[in-house]
Amino acid sequence: MKVVSMAILFLFALFAVSSALDMSIIGYDATHMTSGDSSSTNWRTDDEVNAMYESWLVKHGKTYNALGEKDRRFQIFKDNLKFIDEHNSGDHSYKVGLNKFADLTNEEYRKTYTGIKTIDAKKKVSKAKSDRYAASPADDLPESIDWRAKGAVSQVKDQGSCGSCWAFSTTGSVEGINQIVTGDLISISEQELVDCDTSYNEGCNGGLMDYAFQFIIKNGGIDTEEDYPYTGRDGKCDTYRKNAKVVSIDGYEDVPVNDESALKKAVSNQPVSVAIEAGGRDFQFYTSGVFTGKCGTALDHGVLAVGYGTQDGKDYWIVKNSWGAEWGESGYLKMERNIADKTGLCGIAMEPSYPIKTGQNPPNPGPSPPSPVTPETVCDEYSTCPEGTTCCCIYEYYGYCFAWGCCPLEGATCCEDHYSCCPHDYPICDVCRGTCSKSKNSPLETMAIKRILATPTKAKRSIA
């Protein structure tokens, strides 16, 4: 009888264990990890991690074509998941989780999604020192402020795999002061800055907000996002849209450096452009809470301070990022405020700056006029494409092209489907998925572009 009882108890124990293991393994669930020991045999099973990986691939539309690339990315995903589990098992004021960066190494993430350049003293335009927001004992500032609630912050945007964070930080602060002064929240063009602000800034290769303010002032204004939309890649400056000066500013100033009290005073009056060090894994996978992670002062990312407050006794900044609404808290993060280091967490108090606006915008210029007639790209003696495009053969027979198409990009790669093309900086075509990759083994990709038919030369001449 004892043997039977022991057998029943043993079978019951096995059933309990198997039931405990039969849990959903599709989403991130920190309870599957054993008390912070991600290296132990009690960490997530390979089947569980693989199921999470497959679910993540579907959610983010990821596929890999290079031989062995999916497995290689799985190992990166697994390592990142271990990091996330270890963090979330500890006592922290913020959480990290699986986001669109989960298949990237930290080096790949830093190289692609940050883009602040250091200030070149030879290029920096001198400004009169301003004490507009210098901290004073007499200051009576609100305990908290959120410019989103006041209608001075546009929707969260996504810079994509282009190092244009500096442009998004700039437009955010200009949009803010424009709404405060005029009452109108107008989303303005990051692409105009990427394409046209090239004296000191370098488009997708990085830039600085102060240089961008200088460009807007010198140009007399900047166009709207709707009229000059974002493409996520370096392009040729559209001079007609550059001259559509919808929103203007009168100047810009720097907040007194290394002073969070001065930064608080500035943010209590308007959204402020700030530079931070955002290259750490904590920042890469941030999802919620007050961020207190490890970071230094090697400023590499431009963001926008849109408010401040206190949560559970911890002061924080409200920071708008440009990595889409799925990152962080719907595209935002809370960063710890009033730390012992005068530079602020991640150097947020080192280089804050803001635009100045005192009057109304220029008269509404209306829609941009059509672009002027420009020299063409010659495909052969019978066909041409517009300037700034690439000739791509649509129908080829025995090495001779009978019909040409035009890819609306300079130096583009013509894909083998004779239908699509890829930007020069994303030259690897995936005709099955309709995407373009930076390199054979790179997870960084953009959508392929459809060609348009070339213009027959003789037909044009007959019309003329």
Automatic annotation (TrEMBL):
Query: What are the BP-aspect GO terms?
Result: proteolysis involved in protein catabolic process
Q: Where is the signal peptide?
A: 1-20
According to the UniProt entry, the coiled-coil residues are none
What Pfam families does the annotation carry? Granulin, Inhibitor_I29, Peptidase_C1
Catalysed transformations (reactions): Specificity close to that of papain
In the Enzyme Commission scheme, what number(s) does this protein have? 3.4.22.14
Family matches, as InterPro entries: Granulin, Granulin_sf, Papain-like_cys_pep_sf, Pept_asp_AS, Pept_cys_AS, Pept_his_AS, Peptidase_C1A, Peptidase_C1A_C
Residue span, Granulins domain? 379-436
Locate the Peptidase C1A papain C-terminal domain: which residues?
Answer: 141-356
Q: Name one GO cellular component term.
A: extracellular space
Alphabetical UniProt keywords = Disulfide bond, Glycoprotein, Hydrolase, Protease, Signal, Thiol protease
What is the designated name of this protein?
Actinidain
List the source organism.
Lactuca sativa (Garden lettuce)
